[in-house]
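>> Question from a student workshop board

For tomorrow's exercise we were told to take the sequence and the ligand below, predict the bound structure, and bring the output to class. My setup keeps failing. Could a helper post the expected result so I can at least see what it should look like? The ligand is WTA.
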Amino acid sequence: MTDIEETLANLSREDRRFEPPADLAANANLKADAYEAAAADREGFWAEQAERLTWATKWDQVLDWTNPPFATWFVGGTLNAAYNCVDRHVEAGRGDKVAIHWVGEPEGDTRDLTYADLQREVSKAANALTDLGVAKGDRVAIYMPMIPEAVVAMLACARIGAPHTVVFGGFSADALASRLDDCQAKVVVTADGGYRRGAASALKPAVDEARSKTDVVEKVLVVRRTNQEVDWDDSVDVWWHDVVDSASEEHTPEAFDSEHPLYVMYTSGTTGKPKGILHTTGGYLVGSSYTHHAVFDLKPETDVYWCTADIGWVTGHSYIVYGPLANGATQVLYEGTPDHPERGRWWKIIEQYGVTIFYTAPTAIRSFMKQGHDVPDTFDMSSLRILGSVGEPINPEAYVWYRHVIGGDRTPVVDTWWQTETGSIMISPLPGVTAGKPGSAMTPIPGIEAEVVDDEGNPVPNGSGGYLVVTSPWPSMLRTIWGDDERFKDTYWKRFEKQGYYFAGDGAKKDDDGDIWVLGRVDDVMNVSGHRLSTTEIESALVSHPKVAEAAVVGASDPDTGQAPVAYVILREEAGDGGEGIAKELSDHVRKEIGPIAKPRQIMIVPELPKTRSGKIMRRLLRDVAEKREVGDTTTLADSSIMDLISAGQATST
Ligand code: WTA
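>> Workshop helper replied:
Here is what the output should look like for this input. Compare the format with yours to find the bug.
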């Protein structure tokens, strides 16, 4: 069965409902009436949410949508994002409150930062970046492990109005170089390395290599984390401890226009070239702080919040940095892998810090499920009151396991659907209102309007499937693709241009109650452990290998990672059969070009690829082979015998 079929089958069987606990419902930040209030006056509702922030100049209009799809939110307003995330909490007398309980991977390697500490660190880093020549509007790349300096660097950029682009530390030098180039980053902030799985892994060499491929970078600011040897170029490299530690703790944050660029986050699209998703200041901060307050029911005085995402992804931006800090939360930030040095490391952290709200991804939950409940059962996790899930559809069994084994059957599970492009959570239960259904993201949260539509853009009736769209603009929506307004329009707004809907690229179904079940991507984007990868990007990486003539990649369903890349490769004639170890050679090549997450699960050398008469590769058929299903309808193939050859090869290779 494909993912989608399985989900649909589960859906028809699924009749479990989990009501919110009575005390949570009674004290919830958002109650049922929020839906009505938002529906009655959407802009008024968002204006109210914007009051959560401190504005230097108040806006005079909530939304300008006269030039769609280019939105202006909180027109005329000015603010500083870092001030909102840090200084204002200190000014309100909460400087001694812990902002970040940082937990390094090596046991005992911990650091607590209060909001006052954060204010000092961010101010110093802002001064140091300014001294390095970074001015308002310049782009700064951040390529770091999960250490406090990563958060400090992001906020320092925001403070001086320099949009950051955080590149996930698992990406290769090539992937880093193309991102540096695309946004013309002047400075890179990095570290010598970080700790993963008990060992120091290096980061600085990838920055050095990326610099050999692009000459945009003027300075590299390096945090010493692991003490490993690094190559050093005196004209470019600067140690963080030299320039940040000695910088002044005084820094006056300037107020920027509500639409001033806050950051660019690259994400995979359907072509080989990643898209730089642009988020701006006011609307994004309103969206991330409101949703964090609403969906996680955050009570900043008593909650201890933990989101396990990496800051290299949008989840880390919205739900580690901007949302929680704007809300004055106390949170855990963990550097390492979930199971190091012991399998229960995460649960131990929850017990130690008394974590009350926990936000992670289905792929992690599934890997813990495989280990069974013995490990989590040895820890006291009674502090938990809300669990969250993000990144991919959560299958009902994982949802129920999560709620039962981790949440002790007390905790609502909020399955949150959103994207890099949406900036913040769009569809999710509200923990104090919604009776949760395992596997469903339920309904758009108050303020958001989304639908499931058919090919013509008409809402589908309950019980049917279609495309997921957002039907009206929202504050944290992407503003464009960096440097490419046309691609922005084409990718998201062309499909349902007549209706003016944002096309998310996901398929979804409304059940008999009208609740939404997100089924997965309908384009050539796959979702591997909650990470978006484009089939074309991996194909381009394969084709750049000298032995490869042609390649087709599909996302095959995978019990652990949701989907996994499977590649079909035609070798060049002069490469013969590629030689022994060709699969590993190609897989290493993908790893080098993109990063370890893009490595195919399986590479099959094939004589031909299934193509239509117009030359389009029929990935659907390759997915059938990869998922070991009977191959579907081949009548539109130019040469229908090809699938027999490919399937036969598959039979012998497994
Ligand atoms: C998928 C991550 C089902 C979806 C925040 C979307 C989900 C893509 C869910 C965005 C969910 C995310 N249920 N699918 N709760 N959350 N997705 O940009 O396919 O890394 O389009 O943002 O992940 O991935 P991105």
